[in-house]
Design a protein that fits this description.
10 helices, AB_hydrolase_fold, Acetyl esterase/lipase, 8-stranded mixed beta sheet, about 300 residues, hydrolase, alpha/beta, globular, Rossmann fold, BD-FAE-like_dom, GDXG_lipolytic_enzyme
Length: about 300
């Protein structure tokens, strides 16, 4: 952003920059290097920086397990944080290591999306970033035979990536391909006083929302807030929040938990001491790993 004052405004209000929420997880190894070749094989394979659109940031990496099959190999999709304006799929690498160790029969897709910005022109986040997830899901689904995967997905998002994942499931997953969402410190309610009482909120929101893609008269704060988009068809959600999070107030987690309960959506809700994930204890990090693993086994099992 070349306009420092406006950049500070956006960063100050939507300051959900990824604070090592994922990097705090234990790294347990992974695939070294790329494997190229024509078509899928039954060997463990990774393709990096696969394009799913024309923008240079519309790329994903896909990790394919050995002995995979379009009849059984389900997909875990990772969505990084960074306040919608920063971050990279590389931030989610520890989750790849975790999944590969405990769920070696799943495919993993680690995606980038087009980041919002104001220079050289305004690039809004919403709904474009929701639609980027949709484009990845549709590409994987269309190419399931090439990759030898079964297009059923679990979404794991951190911070802004958790917000995007929740919104994708609640609003855009019309074919019910998403079977669960893991929400790690994701913002869920932009009508929360933490956001709405900031005097610059409306200006910042106007920069993040492409108003041409919403009906006239839309309440944008509600339209892009997961708590106002839950329905009876929403997928199970695992929620993880910090008790003293200075970036995403705990009230956002509580609000989503209450709405999920109202709609009788299966979910879990865990609150840890500390803030936005960077200061969670080793015991808490171990607990979240175990809970994510159980959520995968329960809602996205691979039948051998």
């Amino acid at each position: 952003m070349k306009n420092p004052n406006l950049a500070r405004l956006v960063l100050g209000l939507f300051s959900l920059i990824l604070i090592s929420c994922s990097s705090a997880f234990e790294e347990v190894g992974g695939i070294d290097g790329d494997t190229s070749g024509e078509g899928p094989s039954l060997e463990e394979t990774v393709f990096t920086d696969v394009s799913y659109g024309t923008h240079p940031q519309q790329k994903f990496d896909i990790y394919l397990p050995s002995e995979r099959s379009s009849l059984k190999t389900k997909v875990i999709l990772l969505v990084h944080g960074g306040g919608w304006i920063e971050g990279d799929k590389e931030n989610m690498s520890p989750f790849i290591d975790l999944i590969k160790e405990h769920h070696p029969d799943h495919a993993i897709v680690n995606m980038n999306y087009v980041l919002a910005g104001i220079s050289p022109a305004v690039t809004p986040a919403f709904p474009d970033q929701f639609l980027d997830i949709d484009a990845v899901v549709k590409k994987i689904t269309a190419e399931k035979e090439q990759y030898q995967v079964l297009p059923q997905f679990g979404l794991i998002g951190t911070s802004a990536g958790a917000h995007l994942s929740l919104m994708y499931d609640f609003v855009y997953d019309q074919e019910d391909l998403v079977k669960f969402v893991v929400d790690i410190v994701g913002p869920t309610d932009f009508t929360d006083p933490y956001f709405s009482e900031n005097p610059n909120f409306q200006l910042a929101l106007s920069l993040f929302v492409d108003q041409d893609q919403y009906p006239e008269g839309t309440d944008y704060a509600k339209a892009v807030s997961p708590v106002f988009n839950v329905s009876s068809s929403s997928s199970p959600v695992a929620l993880f929040y910090g008790e003293q999070d200075p970036l995403v107030p705990l009230s956002n987690g509580i609000a989503l938990e209450e709405v999920l309960s109202t709609y009788e959506i299966e979910h879990s809700f865990t609150v840890y001491e500390g803030g936005h994930g960077d200061d969670w204890s080793a015991e808490d990090l171990e607990d979240i790993q175990e809970q994510i693993s159980l959520f995968i086994e329960l809602h996205l099992p691979v039948n051998k």
